[in-house]
Write a structure and sequence with these properties.
Distance between the termini of chain A: 36 Å
Order of helices and strands of chain B: EEEEEEEEEEE
Number of strands of chain A: 11
Mean pLDDT of chain B: 92
Distance between the termini of chain B: 41 Å
Number of helices of chain B: 0
Order of helices and strands of chain A: EEEEEEEEEEE
Radius of gyration of chain B: 14 Å
Largest sheet of chain B: 6 strands, mixed
Mean pLDDT of chain A: 91
Low-confidence stretches of chain B: none
Low-confidence stretches of chain A: none
Number of helices of chain A: 0
Strand content of chain A: over 45%
Oligomer: heterodimer
Shape of chain A: globular
Helix content of chain B: under 10%
Radius of gyration of chain A: 13 Å
Number of strands of chain B: 11
Helix content of chain A: under 10%
Chain lengths: 114, 111
């Protein structure tokens, strides 16, 4: 049973480009959480999704950021027109239930905006 | 809202015991988690407390006092590989019960 898979592990984008980060949850998990971690800081909640539904996006910036978790395929975190301040590690966690007893984290995607 | 505080950095000696404290103020509470995160890697689960008291798991123990909004992670017989960041996280009572993390405590173990 593979763990939470995120790709790419590293992503470099120029200012103004789009970044797409993918997260495949553990088998049997239908709940996905995205977190952002700036250097030397803790994880900040961004968005919580179930299949085809956004449950809570209170931590996600209102502009340029969007997330989806389609019926088939991975969850996608999309950042449009990236800026230097978007450079961070983006972690995805998955859970089999809507009560998070333990979050299993992926290895993260490290986004660098140049 | 949630407010979680933990020290930014700590240093300890190999073989010693270290206690990392975490205080929280939350609008709802459904459990407290501790994660370990090595530089450049994903957080890995260490412990979960939802009731008051001490939970022991090998060299690691975690304590919770809900009335005081306080938890600590105790690491015994420190090893060099324990050098990492330790993240305290609280699960709230909002829809989805997502985890809210503190800033993390960077522990440096010296020989």
């Amino acid at each position: 049973n593979a763990g939470v898979m995120q790709n790419p592990r590293h992503l470099v984008r120029r200012r103004g480009q789009e970044a797409r980060l993918r997260c495949s949850p553990m088998k049997g998990h239908s709940h996905v959480y995205w977190y952002r971690q700036l250097p030397e800081e803790g994880l900040k909640f961004m968005v919580y999704l179930q299949k085809e539904n956004i449950i809570d996006e209170s931590g996600m910036p209102k502009e340029r950021f969007s997330a989806e978790f389609p019926k088939e395929g991975p969850s996608i975190l999309r950042i449009q027109q990236v800026v230097r301040g978007d450079s961070a590690a983006y972690f995805c966690a998955s859970s089999p239930l809507d009560i998070l007893t333990e979050a299993f984290f992926g290895q993260g995607t490290r986004l660098t905006v140049v | 809202g949630q407010n979680i505080d933990q020290p930014t950095e700590m240093t300890a000696t190999e073989g010693a015991i270290v206690q990392i404290n975490c205080t929280y103020q939350t609008s709802g509470f459904n459990g407290l988690f501790w994660y370990q995160q090595h530089a450049g890697e994903a957080p890995t689960f260490l412990s979960y407390n939802v009731l008051d008291g001490l939970e022991e798991k090998g060299r690691f123990s975690s304590f919770l006092s809900r009335s005081k909004g306080y938890s600590y992670l105790l690491l015994k017989e420190l090893q060099m590989k324990d050098s990492a960041s330790y993240l305290c996280a609280v699960r709230g009572s909002e829809a989805g019960n997502m985890l809210t993390f503190g800033g993390g405590t960077r522990l440096m173990v010296k020989p």
